Amino acid sequence: MMNGCRNREEKRERRRKTRQEKREKTIQEVKSAPVLSAVYFFLRVAVIAVMCLQILNGDYYNVAMCALTLILFTIPSIIERRLKIDVPNVLEGIVLVFIFAAEILGEINSFYLKYTFWDTALHTTTGFLSAAVGYSLVDILNKNSKNINLSPFYVAFFAFCFSMTVAVMWEFIEFFMDYFFLTDMQKDTILHTISTVELDPTKSNRAVVIRNITDVTVNGMPLGLGGYLDIGLYDTMKDMGVTFIGSLVFSIFWALYTLGKIKGWFILKLIPKRMEEEKKDDPEKLGDGK
């Protein structure tokens, strides 16, 4: 009986110490990164407020989007704890704002429709950040990175290719959602000119061009769109194009930095690193080869 009571006391004491350690760690994180903590707090409060509003409106799809956003907010900290990867505060802050801009502002508040530049800006940012993550993978996945000399152009090329692969995978996801769940993630575009071999009466693979399209009729009903409704091709290619630009910009900046042509203080704040790495480790070690 005494042993059982003692064990329960020990468990309660361990739980108390664990809670105390978590509180101390949280306080330490807030003190070490006050700006990031403020951004994280503000965004969480904003998402919770939007979630409450959506519950009152009975829009449970948007409630689920808010819940997903809160889960996505935890990814940087999970990566740090589970994978022992240090996510720079600047990168983490940008990621949090990006998630909020995409899910809450873009989807729930319809910024994608209200502001034509919104989707373009987010995909350009994705290209830039994905290239930064692509570079960091070269460092993180190579255990003996200190003994590797790689051309800065090779590393920049890998970062660029990684970013473009992420973009392609995302377009696959958008098509999957549109095809199987009848969403409209690959947004439509109104066109006034189309060319297609499907209308070639000779079936000789010659494109028939239709110009000055002012309306389209579906099942006898005019859509009133002022043109032909493209179902996602232009949106997909635009997204890939701006991601290409973002990826290329980061890759060029990184290559110039490793060659000593420019200062790279901002680039360094976007690159995750292994926590056990010594602080003196510099990203140039992966790109100082000839």
UniProtKB/TrEMBL annotation:
Basic and acidic residues composition bias: residue spans: 1-12
Organism: Candidatus Ornithospirochaeta avicola
Domain of life per record: Bacteria
Record field: transmembrane: 33-56, 62-79, 91-115, 121-141, 153-173, 240-259
Protein name: Uncharacterized protein
Family matches, as InterPro entries: YjdF-like (IPR014509)
Name of a matching Pfam family: DUF2238
Keyword annotations: Membrane, Transmembrane, Transmembrane helix
Signal sequence coordinates: none
Stretch list, region Disordered: 1-24
